[in-house]
Specification:
MmgE_PrpD; 2-methylcitrate dehydratase; alpha+beta; 2-methylcitrate dehydratase PrpD; 54% helix; MmgE_PrpD_C; 6 strands; 462 residues; two-stranded antiparallel sheet; globular; 7% strand; four-stranded mixed β-sheet; 60s Ribosomal Protein L30, Chain: A
Length: 462
């Protein structure tokens, strides 16, 4: 088994070494895919109420002009990272990394973009910093998952702050000691609890923004001379001891270090086809398969049984007062899939949540633990099994091992562009969406962020 000795220092040395190397062609393309997916979510989220609340806070507490908060004008770097990170996670469209159950883009890109704008940095250096930060956050999350989630922490925030700090350290060109101190400081910022689940608590959306902001703060403080514990990851009172538990039982340094510098686990990130929690997607896929291959009259359904892994079974809420509650509900999303043959952003509206037919079918959906699925997650899949039982006793069943969008079942580039258009055109129109897509694929500077900001604030879709 890989030893955790010098774990934080080994990571710091990798960060400094990796930034000197160009991204492999496949990785470069993948980062641009993630950029497009991220920016589409940010733009689509920016007119929302949560974005408005955080924007009000930022304009009051983080005034400035050095960075762009899309939909909210110029702000300080900390303020822009806070808003853009919140919006990246604002409508549950952001990608993720299954082995770590976390969403790296909504933390890392906002931190990198804010500091890059402030420092006048552009081009490949920005993408390299983002790639390093996302890679690290995925590895840290995977090394402690599911123990961290079982201890009630939100991996996106607690692992993401290390990735954001590392990415900003790259932009600031800190040496190995500076990076190690940056990570040590970031550990004191790692936070985010799962108590939002099942409630109307929109703080979930804020977690990536907070982690992005705190990652910037960590690197900036290290550059200024503040020191942090350089055993923050492996120490007896460090991150993994506090958030996961016992080395070798609850967390594995081998997952964090294995292939580091040679293999990019970030290539294993998925892209979401549906705007809701990823734990729900396998069941949605299975339900859609059934309605597309059988003649099923929803009015004749007696019951629906969804078998899945333990963490997903926690998403069985039926209270639908808010969009967030619906986006975290297996019974609701499976009912929508069976009734409407798809799950889109508009399906989370108040009209749909209160629809009599949707609610009636939702109440027939039972979520149960599937032992085989639980054994598979998170190492080999996110399985879900859906059985639809009709009033006459007929049963239709389908099992999904990996939901659509995973690397083994990926969205094509064209499908990704289609997702972006569906999210963004209602906000900034077809021309603005075209600019976003082209700027993501051809990324070489951050000038287009001000265009997106202006387009959102002066939205008049054509």
């Amino acid at each position: 088994m890989t030893s955790s000795d010098r774990l934080t220092w080994n990571i710091a040395e990798w960060i400094v070494d990796q930034q000197q190397r160009p991204l492999p062609e496949r990785m470069d393309h993948h980062v641009r895919r993630l950029l497009l997916d991220h920016l589409a979510g940010v733009v689509a989220s920016s007119p929302g109420a949560v974005s408005g609340a955080v924007g009000e806070h930022v304009h009051r507490m983080y005034p400035g002009t050095t960075a762009t908060a899309i939909g909210h004008g110029r702000s300080s770097a900390l303020g822009a990272a806070l808003i853009n990170g919140t919006n990246g996670h604002g409508i549950e469209t952001d990608e993720g990394y299954t082995p770590g159950s976390m969403h790296p883009t909504s933390v890392i890109f906002p931190a990198v973009f804010a500091v890059a704008q402030e420092k006048g940095i552009s081009g490949d250096r920005v993408l390299t910093a983002a790639a390093i930060g996302m890679e690290l956050s995925c590895r840290i999350a995977a090394a402690g998952h599911p123990a961290t989630r079982n201890r009630h922490f939100h991996n996106t925030a607690i692992a993401g702050v290390f990735g954001a700090a590392a990415a900003v350290a790259v932009l600031l060109e800190l040496d190995v000691t500076g990076v190690a101190n940056t990570l040590g400081i970031a550990g004191s910022h790692a936070s985010g609890l799962f108590e939002f689940l099942g409630q109307s608590a929109e703080i979930k959306r804020f977690h990536p923004g907070k982690a992005a902001r705190d990652g910037i703060t960590s690197a900036d403080l290290a550059q200024a001379g503040l020191t942090g514990p350089t055993t923050i990851l492996e120490g007896k009172d460090g991150y993994f001891a506090a958030y996961a538990g016992v080395e070798g039982t609850d967390w594995d340094p081998g997952i964090l270090l294995g292939g580091l510098g040679e293999e990019w686990v970030l290539l294993g990130t998925y892209v979401k086809p549906y705007p809701c929690c990823r734990h729900l997607h396998g069941a949605i896929d299975a339900a859609l398969h059934l309605v597309n291959t059988h003649t099923i009259d929803p009015a004749d359904i007696a019951s629906v049984i969804v078998g899945t892994f333990a963490i997903a079974t926690r998403h069985a809420g039926r209270q639908l007062d808010t969009i967030l509650q619906a986006q975290l509900s297996l019974p609701f999303t499976v009912a929508v899939a069976l009734l409407r043959g798809g799950v889109t952003l508009t399906d989370f509206s108040e009209d749909t949540r209160s629809n009599i037919a949707v609610q009636a079918l939702m109440n027939k959906v039972q979520v149960v633990l599937d032992d085989a699925a639980d054994a598979a997650y998170p190492k080999s899949g996110r399985p879900a099994d859906v059985t639809v039982v009709m009033n006459d006793g007929t049963r239709y069943q389908h099992r999904v091992e990996q939901p659509y969008g995973e690397p083994s079942n990926p969205l094509s580039d064209s499908d990704l562009e289609g997702k972006a258009r569906a999210l963004v055109e209602p906000v900034i129109g077809a021309d603005g969406t075209k600019n976003l897509i082209e700027s993501s694929w051809n990324f070489d500077s951050l000038e287009f962020l001000d265009f997106l900001d202006s387009a959102v604030r002066n939205a008049d879709p054509r």
